[in-house]
Amino acid sequence: xxxxxxxxxxxxxxxxxxxxxxxxxxxxxxxxxxxxxxxxxxxxxxxxxxxxxxxxxxxxxxxxxxxxxxxxxxxxxxxxxxxxxxxxxxxxxxxxxxxxxxxxxxxxxxxxxxxxxxxxxxxxxxxxxxxxxxxxxxxxxxxxxxxxxxxxxxxxxxxxxxxxxxxxxxxxxxxxxxxxxxxxxxxxxxxxxxxxxxxxxxxxxxxxxxxxxxxxxxxxxxxxxxxxxxxxxxxxxxxxxxxxxxxxxxxxxxxxxxxxxxxxxxxxxxxxxxxxxxxxxxxxxxxxxxxxxxxxxxxxxxxxxxxxxxxxxxxxxxxxxxxxxxxxxxxxxxxxxxxxxxxxxxxxxxxxxxxxxxxxxx
Length: 362
Prior knowledge:
The protein is mainly α.
């Protein structure tokens, strides 16, 4: 989970914890005494969370199903359709890939971790693997959304300017992944797999022991890089696109009836732009607000419902992986047309719609 809990918040009094540090495979597992300062920990509230399982599990399952199916179909259509191998669609392909990885790593593992009274039960290797992939996919998705906004801004506001080449797009995507890896590195280096043998549970968390200033700097830097700056870039880019389209007037005199389709198209674009910015802002806002409040003063969040609130904020953030395929692809006529063509082609090849659908999904 994206809890970033301090050691004092999770360790029972007088217990000894076996702490396995990421990036330190040579040394024997060190044993550390972790003193307790606040016995009311999020992990002590797992029992409360169990009562909400009938609501939480279906919601997470729905997000996982929609996110995996939507992004998989998007990847399938772009990869199989040669004429869709454009710069914009390559960015959308990268977004779908990162969202798909986000779904299969963030959603099931976070839910299982939160609901299991024994904490993390997937082992040390999976601890470091999952807690590397989770923030990595978040960074990649956010940076790709920003790249899409910038690409559309350039194409709409500066139509005569030379478009980004496929090679430049590939370099940009490689840069996005490399920068994301670099930004994830500090969190990975401070990730520990901790076993509390006397208590019978294990945690996999970030511990910035005696580095509170560095932890806060990293946390606020993450907020700036993954939310404030991308949201600003999306807002500015799409506002400029909307204003540009408003000023576009077809040559020659136009009657009211002739201009009606153009006005309708502008309204649709404006609604789509509003949805794009709003979906990003709304889906990621709760988890960022939660993290800021926790950093300012953890007592601002109700201790009894700490884990439940955190899980709901995380669920809201994960809905972005479901929204992106709809907003960036399926609302566009070209993607829907190509999907129908792909399905029709498969249907003709295998000799039946039923087999066609199965071939596409598998």
